[in-house]
Amino acid sequence: MTHEIICAGFGGQGVLLIGRLVTYAGMLADKQVSWMPAYGPEMRGGTASCSVIISDAEVASPVVSQPTVLVAMNQPSLEKFEPTVQAGGVVIINKSLIEVSASRDDVTAYCVPLNELALEVGNARYANMVALGALIGATDMVPLAEVRKTLAKNFAKKPEVVEPNMQAVMRGVQFVHDSKNSK
User: Fold this and answer.
1) How far is 66 from 63, CA to CA, in rounded Å?
2) For the whole model, what pTM was predicted?
3) What is the number of H-type helices and E-type strands within the chain?
């Protein structure tokens, strides 16, 4: 199984962190992985995206031109990348900032109120962790145990934030699972 992912939004939304965390979790799960960031020159507010590949087979190139999964954190990202998603793919849409759903009927779209769910967990800054959870809930590409290990490693200097971040991930997983069950 190979997952080719694009996470996109504007700077400051944590899209590069989503990609980095899922890549590292894939590595811990003995998958072949690649992560390639792309961002504008602005520190915050500019465009940011990353391409991630998680596979059972060797990854020949880090370039993702036709993703199987898109995480769109803002409207411009949805407009830019949705047409490139493979038929049968998954699109995670940040319903908090994007008022439309996927324009295609050959993909599975999850409109997730990331900001509101992050606030439920305790902090609006966890929206990217909710998105990470939605990504995992929609695809099961990496085990949650590896995500927890990844968070612990990534936040080693601030261990007190590991559990709240993991709660945000779990809220995203739960939202997608509830969405699947209601379809």
Assistant:
1) 9
2) 0.94
3) 6, 6
Place of tokens 């709660």: 167
Q: For residue 159, what pLDDT is reported?
A: 92
* Token representation of residue 43: 């520190």
Instruction: Provide the pLDDT confidence category of residue 45 given band limits of 50, 70 and 90.
Output: low
Q: How far is CA 85 from the centre of its chain?
A: 14
Contact 109, 138 (CB under 8 A): no
CB neighbours of residue 75 within 10 Å = 16
Whole-number Å distance between alpha carbons of 61 and 7: 17
DSSP-based three-state secondary structure for 7? strand
CA distance 54 to 152: 20
What pLDDT is stored for residue 183 in this prediction?
A: 65
